[in-house]
UniProtKB/TrEMBL annotation:
Domain annotation Protein kinase: ranges: 1-169
Coiled-coil ranges from the UniProt annotation: none
Protein localization: Cytoplasm, Cytosol; Mitochondrion inner membrane; Mitochondrion outer membrane
Keyword Secreted: no
Needed co-factor(s): Mg(2+)
Name of this chain's protein: non-specific serine/threonine protein kinase
Length: 173
């Protein structure tokens, strides 16, 4: 399921679209005849798909809409400050949200949801604060999720076309 979600996000980015509101409510799951899940990304009401700005949104004031669910906003989006030349790069923001959603996919609580400070905030968490995924999740998948949740998008987070380049990522059935 994680790989399907990454493939969907990768396809969107390659088409110049940022969903900007990925959350479990916007991921539809249908079982095929063999009982295998198929994911569909839904609700594009907050998406960025502008042929003039691409995935680089000018952020000139606080009145510019940064997207949907604040809990699952990538660090570069949630911590952005407006200014005359400020731009928010959404090219890797949805991949970060997939990393956060991976906790739910693998049966854990999403560390970015919670109340009264009992959760991490994307604008100021440290990677060391991320809870471990269950041991039943293969090591390469746990490492992939850690990569997705890097605070600095340019550091390790996946680039468009990643799914075709990483055939070694195996998600358990």
């Amino acid at each position: 399921m994680l790989l399907q979600l990454l493939e969907g996000v990768d396809h969107l980015v390659q088409q110049g679209v940022a969903h900007r509101d990925l959350k479990s409510d916007n991921i539809l799951v249908e079982m095929d005849a063999d009982g295998c899940p198929w994911l569909v990304i839904a609700d594009f009401g907050c998406c960025l798909a502008d042929e003039h700005v691409g995935l680089q949104l000018p952020f000139t004031s606080w009145y510019v809409d940064r997207g949907g669910n604040g809990c699952l906003m990538a660090p570069e989006v949630s911590s952005a400050c407006p200014g005359p030349r400020a731009v928010i790069d959404y090219s890797k923001a949805d991949a970060w949200a997939v990393g956060a959603l991976a906790y739910e996919i693998f049966g854990s609580s999403n560390p970015f949801y919670g109340q009264d400070g009992a959760h991490l905030e994307s604008r100021n968490y440290q990677e060391a604060q991320l809870p471990a995924l269950p041991e039943s999740v293969p090591l390469d998948v746990r490492q992939l999720v850690r990569s997705l949740l890097q605070r600095e998008a340019s550091k390790v987070r996946l680039s468009p076309g990643f799914v075709q380049m990483e055939p070694s990522v195996h998600v358990p059935e």
